[in-house]
């Protein structure tokens, strides 16, 4: 069993408490992550949202990717699971960025792929927000490009959403065969995508019976 926690990039995660004394600042998350590493925590999930979904859109929130890069340089053991929304990142460019952070951390980077959900945030940042199944179709292509850029040279891809021509990405990630890709979701589109193209299934807490059923479902889809 491994233990992890959500990084308080929003200044805490409780909606009913205004001040949790968890400052949304680099100095606070640096101190927290270094301390959690000493205590033996295995990983931390760094959420990616440009608006603060917990304390309100006007409250501060830290950028996930620059925070992850900084933490990679000041920690030694803890896994940095960074959430990423395909609609906010071109896949080949994200592959380059993630490969660099993976090397800074000596192979401790992983991704939690989230096919977006907050339409208002997307509009405020000038990002297109598609219908549910279109977002998952985009994510499927996004993962194809990400994996290709990480594992091949002169990688080309032509799909509905993305096109790359003879991509070159060096240095490639330290992690083999690639950084671990997590994803969650309860819809049919989500579960099928996760079974086909991801490495691990992220679930919220529930009864052991319901968790067991979900695991069995994903295992069956993976083996089909």
Q: What would you call the shape?
A: globular
Rg on CA atoms, Å: 18 Å
In N-to-C order, the SSE pattern is EHEHEHEHHEEEHEH
What kind of oligomer do you see? single chain
Query: Which structural class best describes the helix and strand composition?
Result: alpha/beta
Number of strands: 8
Helices, by number, come to: 7
Low-confidence stretches: none
Largest sheet: 6 strands, parallel
Average pLDDT across residues?
95
- Strand composition percent: 15-25%
Proportion in helices: 40-55%
Order of the strands making up the biggest sheet? 1-2-3-4-7-8
First-last Cα distance: 27 Å
Q: Mind explaining what this structure looks like?
A:
- This protein is α/β, with parallel strands linked by helices and 224 residues long.
- It contains seven helices and eight strands; from the N terminus they run βαβαβαβααβββαβα.
- It has helices at 26-39, 64-74, 91-104, 119-124, 132-151, 188-197, 208-223; strands at residues 4-6, 43-46, 79-84, 109-113, 155-158, 163-167, 181-184, 200-202.
- The strands form two sheets. Strands 1-2-3-4-7-8 form a six-stranded parallel β-sheet, with helices on one face. It has a two-stranded antiparallel sheet with strand order 5-6.
Which properties best describe this structure?
single chain, 224 residues, alpha/beta, six-stranded parallel β-sheet, two-stranded antiparallel sheet, 8 strands, globular
Topology of helices and strands:
Layout: E1 4-6, H1 26-39, E2 43-46, H2 64-74, E3 79-84, H3 91-104, E4 109-113, H4 119-124, H5 132-151, E5 155-158, E6 163-167, E7 181-184, H6 188-197, E8 200-202, H7 208-223
Parallel strand pairs: 1-2, 2-3, 3-4, 4-7, 7-8
Antiparallel strand pairs: 5-6
Helix pairs in contact: 1-2, 2-3, 3-5, 5-6, 6-7
